[in-house]
């Protein structure tokens, strides 16, 4: 059997982080088994579905590298096919027309509650002669669910799950206005798309039993179901915005790399030993449904940041520089991003990325390379630029001014020899130098910073602190 999976979001909002994990698991399972991964946009809710949401979902999937192997299927465009199958079920005696009014349905629910039963349709029209239909009433079409015995589904994650058939009501598959219901449309689309494995959140587990009724009524093969536990917050509660229940676009804006998000989502509910760092090629090799746990995963921003820091350190410097520059260009504070300052940021990326956990942090740390005089200094840097600090900087400036080469090794030798001549520990020279050049007490290696800023800019910054001009 050739594996075919699908991700089927409803375009009523952004691509939720939980949806992204579902897409990832479907993508990986298909890739692991050499199959296909398809997309379906379930846009039959016309009031809530928007083109903007469709664009946001597809953009988020593309950013994560989880675009479908074929153009997405739009459920709304297939209404005629859904209707055709509903009428076929009617024709073969697996469905029937129901003429119950809203008032009659409410009475059924009230009676069930009074008797301690779950409210559901009682099958009033299941075996009645259509000639008894009231005039002028548009019927719905209901599927004939099994009434006796029980149904067992072997779920690839949850294991064998059984429900009494008495819990399966004759659900509506075609409304009175002729529109198909979601539960029916999903089955028809999955069958027609050749879906072999339905991998989705375990909040759909009950739906699987109701959908299986339609598959069997049509004589279709029931796909393998795999219901993965939902994601919870660190406190075990349902994931909310304060936990990280945000759109994928928000994670991009916060400065996370797509490979880090994918790796983190992979580890939310799936495991292979103690491996935390699982690149995409290895994930394809290792992923299968037997590694998915049955308990809810807990979202942890600290782990995501640590993973992101790892992937930033592994990332190509030119790629990081483009992401940083794009972020700095979008800021409203007027950084002087000239060709020269952009070159500095590109040249300094290797040292900058060693400390950063997000692209936002990386951009913040890179700002000093593009800063113009006068620099702003944080509180700790200001303390280093007292009278003693400025005296050290004056002496250092003269030493640096005499250099013919300003390569990293040359400036290091100059600073070290100055510190030795003044009988200073290296830090006593390097700390005020870092403060004067960056406005902070933390930065990449100070000799690297000097070399990247270059002789003229380094001396301009030192002279500005010392109050001297050359």
From TrEMBL:
Ranges of Basic and acidic residues composition bias in the record: 111-131
Motif 'HIGH' region, chain ranges: 9-19
EC id: 6.1.1.17
Boundaries of every Aminoacyl-tRNA synthetase class I anticodon-binding domain copy: 320-465
Subcellular location(s) of the protein: Cytoplasm
Region feature Disordered, mapped onto this chain: 111-134
Keyword list, A-Z: Aminoacyl-tRNA synthetase, ATP-binding, Cytoplasm, Ligase, Nucleotide-binding, Protein biosynthesis
Protein residues bound to ATP: 241
Assembly with partners or alone: Monomer.
Family (UniProt): Belongs to the class-I aminoacyl-tRNA synthetase family. Glutamate--tRNA ligase type 1 subfamily.
Protein name per its UniProtKB record: Glutamate--tRNA ligase
Organism this protein belongs to: Thalassobaculum litoreum DSM 18839
